[in-house]
Amino acid sequence: MALSVVPNFVKFLAPPNPTFKSSADRKSVVARNSNGQQLSSRGSVYLKEKKTLPEKPEADVVIIGSGIGGLCCGALLARYQQDVLVLESHDLPGGAAHSFDVKGYKFDSGPSLFSGLQSRGPQANPLAQILDALGESLPCATYDSWMVYIPEGEFLSRIGPTEFFKDLEKYASPNAVQEWKKLLDAILPLSGAAMALPPLSIRGDLGVLSTAAARYAPSLLKSFVQMGPQGALGATKLLRPFSEIIDGLELKDPFIRNWVDLLAFLLAGVKTNGILSAEMIYMFAEWYKPGCCLEYPINGSAAIVDALVRGLEKFGGRLSLESHVEKIVVEDDRAIGVKLRSGQFIRAKKAVVSNASMWDTLRLLPTEVVPKSYSDRINKTPQCESFMHLHLGFDAEGIRDDLGIHHIVVNDWERGVDADQNVVLISVPSVLSPNLAPPGKHVLHAYMPGTEPFELWEGLDRKSAEYRNLKAERSEVMWRAVERALGPGFNREKCEVKLVGSPLTHQRFLRRNRGTYGPAIQAGKDTFPGHSTPIPQLYCCGDSTFPGIGVPAVAASGAIVANSLVSVSQHSQLLDAIGI
Fold first, then answer.
1. Is 199 in a helix, a strand, or coil?
2. Are 147 and 485 in contact (CB under 8 A)?
3. Max CA pair span of the chain
4. H or E segment and range at residue 110
5. pLDDT digits over 473-524, tens only?
6. Mean per-residue pLDDT, 544-558
7. Distance (Å, rounded) from C-alpha 78 to C-alpha 61?
8. Cα atoms in the 13 Å half-sphere on the side-chain side of 331
9. CB contact set of 225 (below 8 Å; sequence gap of 6+)
10. 547 prior amide bond cis, ω within 30
11. 20 to 30 A from 108, CA-CA: which of 39, 42, 302, 489?
12. 136 contacts 311 by C-beta, under 8 angstroms
């Protein structure tokens, strides 16, 4: 569901769940103005390669990829008065978070469940802090629930301090109620420590002692004092798997353990034995406190991308679409620029930043300049599986009026939430942002996140009958989930738009190795890589780097790289400007 709350010094999710239309559809759905220039969902002009690069084929910093991480990095560097050029292979910016239009239906390709987008201050979502620094606002609709369909039944799950107890009483047992209370009592006091260090204070050099350690030591110390000795001892587990906290509390109720596994999976694509405790603790603090809410950007995830592009361009940064980077150019053991598929060389005077995955970044580098230890680590890093997607546009007639925006379907607890064909997430954003669909219509995105094996698809011809048949077979579980969520008024045959995305879709349009969700790095066993590389002047941001997978996490990674490329005084001034 692409969650977008955020723990302050570790990764958090909003899973990139990109699905694009087939290549045959692309020309028919790209919006352009009267002069033929490509438009964003809000009408701003994105510059094409032929219009920007010949004029100035160099920049202080060249960024590969306009995903959320790349745009956050580029926009902040522009605010830091650096000359920035963001290169995007696609004809739309946003990477996994971009949106596309088919027959008047505006589809999110990825993130759909957000919170904290309008928060401010030291404990705010990093993306919100970046937008604040750029002077950009993001209007959102708010809500507090989603529908859950599990083997035990179906119910409307509400966030907040008391509502979930009612669901436990009905669908679980009195013991589940007591265990849930025991869990909240144990972990909520730890949230202060999990939120004490804003990711935007971090940089990749010793300057971090000034911008992070010294600046936030008092608040961190205060949080430990407030927790007391037992709480402070528990805080040592923040960077350990959340399953250790569950086991330590001796929580045994099957419903509680399944439910917490589901929450962990929605956050980071892993179960409780693979997710950092800090992530889960922050999520619990955000979702189970008085007055909490979820948010959805008006105009969809494209509104986030547009806001970042506006911020980039406002401060003089440039974005060039359909600018496919073929390789990173290294001379005298330093990254000095990139070469495009067109053959054009773009010089980077200070740094090259790759927003591509670790595997795709490695592929862009000349083999002879890469240390074996670096390539070995990347090649040995396990990958999450890929996605299946279903995008639908249909008439709202016959659909119940109280339809919610989000629905989660779990078919079988015994198989595990990370099993393929088992968990389906559904978003109907036109419920909250009706302009995403034609009048009287709905737009829907269903997907199975990070559970679809690439091996089933590897080597298939996308134009073959075998490929079409496999798409029909593997998407059927999503169709059934949609029919369950929407009820008898929905008829799949009457959908005006039907698009199925596969792992090959991911691989092709996102330039993602094997269409992967990202690195399958489990808490307690390994950590996400930092942002520097063995190649001087080459940096990385995005979901292959710390803090990890998800919208807030990749936003934070982009900010960390931007901070690392400017002086400590500039970095400190930005923190002062946004009040953190």
1. helix
2. yes
3. 69
4. none
5. 999 999 999 999 999 999 999 999 999 999 999 888 888 899 888 888 888 7
6. 89
7. 10
8. 9
9. none
10. yes
11. 489
12. yes
The rounded distance, in Å, linking the Cα atoms of 406 and 52 is 40
Per-residue tokens: 122: 């030291």
DSSP3 helix / strand / coil % (the chain, rounded to 5) = 40, 20, 40
Distance CA 503, CA 448 (A): 11
Burial 368-399 (b: 16+ CB within 10 A, else e): eebeeebeeebeebebbbbbbbbbbbbbbeeb
Residue 242 has phi, psi (to 5 degrees) of -65, -25
Distance of CA 115 to the CA centre of its chain: 12
Does residue 353 contact residue 62 with C-beta atoms inside 8 Å? Answer: yes
What letter represents residue 281's amino acid? I
| Structure-token pair, residue 360 | 């795709």
Contact 179, 256 (CB under 8 A): yes
Convert the pLDDT of each residue in 21-51 to its tens digit: 333 333 333 333 333 344 444 434 444 443 4
Of 345, 319, 324, residue with least CA distance to 48: 319
Q: Read off the amino acid at residue 70.
A: G
What is the C-alpha to C-alpha distance for residues 504 and 514, in angstroms, rounded to an integer?
8
Amino acid at 135: G
Per the CB < 8 A criterion, the answer to whether 384 and 520 are in contact is yes
Is the dihedral angle over the CA atoms 486, 492, 495, 501 positive or is it negative? positive
C-alpha neighbours within 13 Å on the C-beta side of residue 396: 20
